[in-house]
Automatic annotation (TrEMBL):
Name used for this protein in its record: Pathogenesis-related protein 1-like
Superkingdom assignment: Eukaryota
Family under the similarity heading: Belongs to the BetVI family.
GO terms under cellular component: cytoplasm; nucleus
GO BP annotation list: abscisic acid-activated signaling pathway; defense response
Provenance organism: Cocos nucifera (Coconut palm)
Annotated ranges, domain Bet v I/Major latex protein: 3-153
């Protein structure tokens, strides 16, 4: 099967630079902000630069126990990054590969728009229509949780 893509735009009152940094640091924030979903998280390999791998371990609220994702690209000036799923989740069960690119664009009102592009290659014979909706919901929840943290903590990721 050929790769499929879905896109999402999320508006936020948080500044692009701070929300971008919070998403890059999600493995540290997630267990604190979403303890009902993320049980723990850790950097598995690297120092947070390109090539680094992080693991998020989930509670029973998720249909799988964990995901490992690799940071493939980061541009601190343009507030852009890309992660690829390297282990866990639906990898090998429903999808052959998946990656997500985030781009945070500053708005004139002081907030930003988070543009998300997820590309995945489904395994032959697997329909992922419900998974796309769940993926969009999960990404929106992540961005909104990071947004709430950034807005409640003015010194965080400044």
């Amino acid at each position: 099967m050929s790769p499929s893509t879905w896109t999402l735009e999320i508006e936020s009152p948080a500044p692009a630079s701070r929300l971008f940094k919070a998403v890059l640091d999600w493995h540290n924030l997630a267990p604190e902000l979403l303890p009902n979903i993320v049980a723990s998280a850790v950097g598995v390999q690297g120092d947070g630069s390109v090539g680094s791998v992080r693991q998020l371990n989930f509670t029973s609220a998720m249909p799988f126990g964990y995901v490992k994702e690799r940071l493939d690209f980061v541009d601190f000036d343009k507030f852009e990054c890309k992660h690829s799923l390297v282990e866990g989740g639906d990898l090998g069960k429903k999808i052959e590969s998946a990656s997500t690119q985030f781009k945070f664009e500053q708005t004139t009102k002081g907030g930003c728009v988070c543009k998300v592009v997820t590309t995945y290659k489904p395994l032959p014979g697997v329909e992922n229509k419900d998974e796309v909706a769940k993926g969009k919901e999960a990404v929106t929840g992540t961005i909104k949780a990071a947004e709430a943290y950034v807005l409640a903590n003015p010194g965080a990721y400044a």
